[in-house]
């Protein structure tokens, strides 16, 4: 990537050379090119050094550096990583403060400062995070990584897979040590979280070779990947045998230690759900809000914004009620829609297959319309996949994984079909557009494929931007002619309402001292979601403070900027150009996004 950038700026320098008749401008331009190239070389060096510290991050990027190793998960390593980042930040300021930079290099400088400030803010509260929980817990992360990220293209890749199986023991032991240390200081998830974690851990060591059942998830994955290799069968058998040994001698014992540690912590865990209970809980929650929303919004403002948005969406839903001829008020309509068999697929393999097929069909339909709405389109393929059985009980409703930079791994939309009763057909479209196209896949694949911007911009992220785009995309699909069935449009509004409710309940739990039951009661009274889906959602917000607030806050900003551009430019407004402005700089904080759009508006009006 950096080579492409240097080639590009070299071309600019060559083009500038004939302007010698006006010396002042070419000298300044050449200085800007030289210093911009130097800054981008600096960022390339930073990326190379950062990847060398993280085998897992390298693998997510499609690289196979230290392919048989795991990251160091100790607190000492986290301190060292922070020191590493702050050193690079200081070096950038020393070398490039006041440098003559082109616009993209200036933006990169600003974004690197903002990225490091964000990491520094989070580092101060690192001891307040949960190591094991049902959303992002270490017990599920390692198996999911091996199954979904560790590619096996060669015999050596397969041997590295086995090495990682052997290394899960030391890696998870580090996580256990950090979790136990935090527990001593009272940082534990609520008591109800522990059965989920224990269940996940038990699922990993269920099946062959651990018992006489069908192959366990990891054993089956290893066998499937090795079977595709073009090597002698004897070599395949030897790798599988080594993997079996690693599962029995490393994976099983450490997962038994995870279970023991969770069983030891559970009696000491409390029943209060909000992080306000921590000694620095209020400051921690404020930092989480700033981190995820990239704004200075307060917890009280989040709560009030949520109430306002809930009221707005309720009004829009009443329009759907009138369209379908429903007689009754909105709570009655919620009751009619909630769990209605008319909008559920069978809780069978056939029902799950139909769900995936419908989601794929919706994505293909909107994909054909993209050239009329976007100037830049992604090259990476998109795969729709059900969440794996070993983690479906605890995993979220839907999520997305970016493609690798080399194109060897597609973008993946994961949908959780554990309970079909919680996945109504009315929401299939909106979820597919949010996680797939024109949502996360389009945005993140474009970012991954961008040329001539530093890796930290291509592969970094800001939740308000990325999730704001996902939620904006749900409504954008309506602009594109989707949701022709009014009940699907209700599903879109239901998911938007879900994000508005998040503002109310996340701040309710972590700021207003609501219990999980208070949050569930609010959602039941104000949405058409099923009790099971609501319960799972509230459990997510408890262990993931602040994150869920970013969706609506980001979406409102993107919609606000589009409306501003449409009003300011009138006939000059081009939706494809607007989307390019939003998407072709990579992920940015909301204030930077606003500045970029305002600059585009000014340039178009000039």
From TrEMBL:
InterPro entries: DUF885. It comes from the Bacteria. PANTHER family: DUF885 DOMAIN-CONTAINING PROTEIN, GLR0591 PROTEIN. Residues 1-21 form the signal peptide. Keywords: Signal. This is DUF885 domain-containing protein. The keyword Cell membrane does not apply. Transmembrane segments: none annotated. The keyword Cell division does not apply. Pfam families: DUF885.
């Amino acid at each position: 990537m950096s080579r492409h950038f240097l080639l590009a700026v070299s071309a600019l320098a060559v083009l500038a050379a004939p302007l010698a008749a006006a010396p002042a401008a070419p000298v300044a331009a050449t200085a800007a090119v030289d210093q911009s190239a130097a800054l981008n070389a600096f960022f390339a060096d930073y990326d190379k050094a950062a990847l060398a510290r993280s085998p897992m991050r390298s693998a997510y990027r499609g690289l196979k550096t230290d392919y048989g190793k795991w990251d160091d998960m100790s607190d000492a390593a986290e301190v060292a990583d922070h020191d590493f980042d702050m050193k690079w930040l200081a070096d950038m300021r020393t070398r490039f403060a006041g440098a003559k930079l082109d616009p993209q290099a200036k933006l990169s400088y600003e974004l690197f400062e903002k990225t490091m400030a964000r990491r520094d803010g989070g580092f101060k509260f690192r001891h307040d995070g949960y190591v094991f929980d049902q959303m992002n817990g270490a017990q599920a992360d390692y198996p999911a990584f091996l199954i979904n990220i560790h590619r096996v293209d060669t015999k050596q890749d397969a041997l590295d897979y086995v090495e990682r199986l052997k290394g899960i023991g030391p890696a998870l032991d580090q996580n256990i040590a950090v979790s136990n240390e935090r527990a001593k200081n009272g940082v534990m998830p609520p008591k109800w979280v522990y059965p989920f974690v224990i269940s996940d851990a038990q699922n990993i060591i269920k099946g062959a070779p651990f018992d006489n059942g069908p192959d366990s998830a990891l054993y089956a994955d290893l066998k499937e990947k090795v079977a595709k290799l073009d090597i002698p069968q004897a070599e395949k058998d030897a790798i599988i045998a080594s993997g079996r040994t690693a599962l029995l001698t490393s994976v099983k014992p450490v997962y038994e230690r995870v279970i023991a540690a969770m069983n030891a912590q559970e009696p000491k865990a409390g029943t209060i759900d909000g992080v306000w209970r921590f000694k620095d809980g209020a400051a921690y929650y404020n930092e989480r809000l700033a981190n995820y929303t990239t704004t200075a919004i307060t917890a009280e403002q989040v709560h009030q914004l949520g109430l306002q948005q809930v009221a707005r969406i309720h009004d829009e839903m009443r329009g759907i009620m009138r369209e379908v001829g429903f007689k009754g008020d909105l709570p009655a309509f919620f009751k009619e829609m909630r769990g209605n068999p008319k909008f559920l697929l069978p809780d069978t393999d056939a029902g799950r297959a139909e769900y995936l097929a419908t989601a794929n069909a919706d994505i293909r339909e909107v994909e054909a319309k993209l050239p009329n709405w976007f100037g830049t389109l992604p090259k990476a393929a998109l795969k729709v996949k059900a969440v794996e059985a070993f983690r479906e009980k605890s995993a979220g409703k839907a999520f997305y994984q970016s493609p690798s930079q080399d194109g060897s791994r597609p973008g993946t939309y994961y949908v959780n079909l554990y309970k079909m009763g919680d996945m109504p057909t009315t929401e299939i479209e909106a979820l597919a557009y949010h996680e797939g196209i024109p949502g996360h896949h389009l945005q993140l694949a474009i970012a991954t494929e961008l040329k001539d911007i530093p890796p930290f911009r291509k592969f970094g992220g800001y939740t308000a931007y990325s999730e704001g785009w996902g939620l904006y995309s749900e409504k954008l699909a309506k602009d594109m002619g989707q949701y022709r069935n009014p009940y699907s449009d209700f599903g879109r509004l239901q998911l938007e309402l879900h994000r508005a409710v998040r503002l109310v309940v996340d701040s309710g739990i972590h700021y207003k001292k609501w219990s999980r039951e208070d949050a569930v009661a609010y959602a039941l009274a104000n949405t058409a979601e099923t009790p099971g889906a609501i319960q799972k959602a509230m459990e997510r917000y408890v262990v993931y403070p602040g994150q869920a607030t970013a969706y609506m806050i980001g979406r409102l900003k993107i919609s606000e900027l589009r409306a501003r551009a449409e009003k300011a430019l009138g006939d000059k407004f081009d939706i494809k150009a607007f989307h390019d402005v939003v998407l072709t700089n990579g992920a940015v904080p909301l204030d930077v996004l606003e500045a970029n759009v305002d600059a585009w508006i000014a340039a178009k009006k000039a």
